[in-house]
Amino acid sequence: MKVDYSLDAKGLACPMPIVKTKKAMNDLIDGQIIEVVATDRGSTADIAAWSETVGHQYLGTVEDGDVLKHYIRKCSNETVVEKLHGQIIHLDELLKKVSEGALLLDVREEAEYAFGHIEGAKSIPMGELERQMNELEKDKSIYVICRTGKRSDLAAQKLADNGFTNVWNVIPGMTQWKGAIKKSI
User: Fold this and answer.
1) Percent helix, strand and coil across the chain, each rounded to 5?
2) How does pLDDT run across 119-157, given as a tens digit for each residue?
3) Among 10, 101, 115, 158, whose Cα sits 20 to 30 Å from the Cα of 123?
4) What is the pLDDT of the chain when averaged over all its residues?
5) b/e per residue 131-160 (b: at least 16 CB within 10 A)
6) How far is Cα 57 from Cα 120, in angstroms, rounded to an integer?
7) Burial (CB count <10 Å: 0-12, 13-18, 19+), residue 33
């Protein structure tokens, strides 16, 4: 595939592949294609969701061993304003909501979840969310968490766009979580 720019995001974890992609997209013109080379398995779902959110065309991903090559076509000459999910909750408020029966949805990759998650959290990796969305109740309070708050923001938007009425993005995410964690490995 002919690309106009190749971005090396190998070895970077969420949210850095998106951060670097966003910066590189500013230098492209409408219609140009960027190739983002990454090793983070979660980047496939993250980059696809981010592209949709900001209005660029996600063309697809090619796997080459442990390397993922993501292709995105820039769709606007204007600076794209990234849409953010409007309902947020901070980590320090989260436990009370969960103790009241709300669902904590962890959208990190399976390995991230296995090495440490908040007890009771339901794991649906971002890349599986579309397929497993029917497992969630549309009118129940859902608090979405990831590593930093970026992936969970995209997941919260996707849920809201699909009729979920009470969805909250948890910030800053598991990187700042000070409470107990449960491991499933």
Assistant:
1) 35, 25, 40
2) 999 999 988 999 999 999 998 999 999 988 889 999 999
3) 10
4) 90
5) eebeebeeeebbbbbbbbbbbbbbbbbbbb
6) 36
7) middle
The C-alpha angle with vertex 171 and arms to 166 and 172, in degrees rounded to 5, equals 165
N residues, the chain: 185
Active site residues: 14
| Long-range residue pairs from 95-101, CB within 8 A, at least 24 positions apart, any chain | 95/179, 97/141, 97/143, 97/168, 98/143, 101/141
Instruction: Tell me the helices (H) and strands (E) count for the chain, helix number first.
Output: 6, 9
Residue type, 111: A
Q: What's this model's pTM, rounded to 2 decimal places?
A: 0.71
What region, left, alpha or beta, does residue 18 occupy, with left being phi > 0 and alpha being psi -120 to 50 degrees?
alpha
Strands (E), the chain: 5-9, 33-38, 57-64, 67-73, 88-90, 103-106, 122-123, 142-145, 167-171
